[in-house]
Amino acid sequence: MRTLLIESSPGVGLEAAYELVAAGHEVLRCQPEGAQSFPCTDLTSPGSCPLHGVDQVDVALVTRAARDLEPTTAEAGVTCALRAGVPVTVLGHPSARNPYAGWSEAATCSDPVQACMAAVDSAREAIVAPLRQEVVRMVTAAGGVVDDGQIDVVMQRADGRVHLEVIVPKDLPVGDETIATHVHSIFRDRATGDFRTVDVAVTHHD
Prior knowledge:
With 206 residues, the protein is of the alpha/beta class. It has 2 domains: 2-120, Rossmann fold, CATH 3.40.50; 122-205, Alpha-Beta Plaits, CATH 3.30.70. It has helices at residues 14-22, 41-44, 76-83, 112-141, 176-190; strands spanning 2-7, 26-28, 59-64, 88-92, 105-106, 152-158, 161-169, 197-205. Strands 2-1-3-4-5 form a 5-stranded parallel β-sheet, with helices on both faces. It has a 3-stranded mixed β-sheet with strand order 6-7-8, with helices on one face. α4 packs across α5 (176-190). The longest helix has 30 residues, at 112-141. The model has no long low-confidence stretch (mean pLDDT 86).
C-alpha cells in the first residue's frame, strides 16, 4: 500500500513510518524528510505529487503531536489529499482533538497500519455501497427480488485503471450488460481521483 505520511510537527511520524515500512507500505511525503513545510515536492519537481497520477497513494496518514491542537503549516497536504479524494486518517494523543473531524477517518487505535487499512476499507465501502444499491434498484424495478446482502462489488485499482467486479445471483431479470453499464455510470459520477480506465465485469453466484 502507498501511504502519504503527514506530520503536524517534524519527527512526530517517525515511529509510524517505521511500522508502515515494516508492514510493507511505501511511505511518501509532501516534502523530503526534515525539510521545511514549504515548498512541497510538486512545486520543486512538477508532476511528483504522490496525490496525483496513476500512482496516486492509497491513503494519507496524519500523525499529530499532543501539543498541536490546531492544524499546522506542515499539514497542508491534508487539504490536498481530501481534494484528491484520498482517504485521510488521523493519529494523535488521546487528549488532542481531531481538527479534521467530519473530513477524515478517526483512528480507533494507535496502530498506524490498522488505521490506514480501516480508512481504506471505509472509503471503499462508501464507493461500492451506492453501486450495490443501484443493482438492487434495477432488479426491483424489473420485478425481481434481491437484497443488498446478495450483491457484492469488489474494487481494485492499479496502474491508473479501476476494475469493478459486480457479483450477483443467477437468473436476474436484468442483463449483465445493463448492470455493468449502470454501475459504470454511477461510479464515474461519484468517484474522485486519477484513473484512465474503468472496467466493469459481472459474475454470478448461486
